[in-house]
Design brief:
Layout: H1 13-19, H2 36-50, E1 59-62, H3 65-79, E2 87-90, H4 91-101, H5 103-106
Parallel strand pairs: 1-2
Helix pairs in contact: 1-2, 2-3
Length: 123
């Protein structure tokens, strides 16, 4: 079921402007609870359905895993199965994937690990 701007009645004017902005890269900066996830989802739907952007060319980056999961779920609701081809994740996930893909040029060993508070035997 295609989404249309009329399907987004809960967007305020600034959010709607971000969703329908030009094809240039956009940066959305706003505080907690201001609708950033909603804007990213509607922006992706708009690009797919109104600007003919191939879903696999979209990358949606957020800060938390919860927001990344919401992006994926909400986008699937708006655009259907095409949403599975959009890459969505946290900034940490994308940095990790980039280092994995380009470890040699980055000067990082192929078998590097990420140490966090769940890794207790790293040292």
């Amino acid at each position: 079921m295609p989404s249309r701007p009329a399907d987004w009645p809960d967007l305020n004017p600034d959010q709607r402007a971000a969703v329908t902005a030009s094809m240039d890269p956009q940066l959305v900066v706003a505080g907690p609870g201001t609708g950033k996830t909603r804007v990213l989802v509607c922006r992706a739907a708009h690009l797919i359905e109104h600007e003919a952007v191939t879903p696999s060319r979209l990358v949606l980056v957020t800060f938390t895993r919860r927001a990344a999961q919401q992006l994926t779920s909400r986008l699937a609701t708006l655009v259907g199965p095409e949403a599975q081809h959009v890459r969505a994740g946290t900034i940490h996930h994308f940095c990790y994937k980039t280092l994995r893909a380009h470890s040699a040029p980055a000067g990082v060993p192929d078998d590097f690990i990420v140490v966090d508070d769940t890794v207790t035997d790293a040292f």
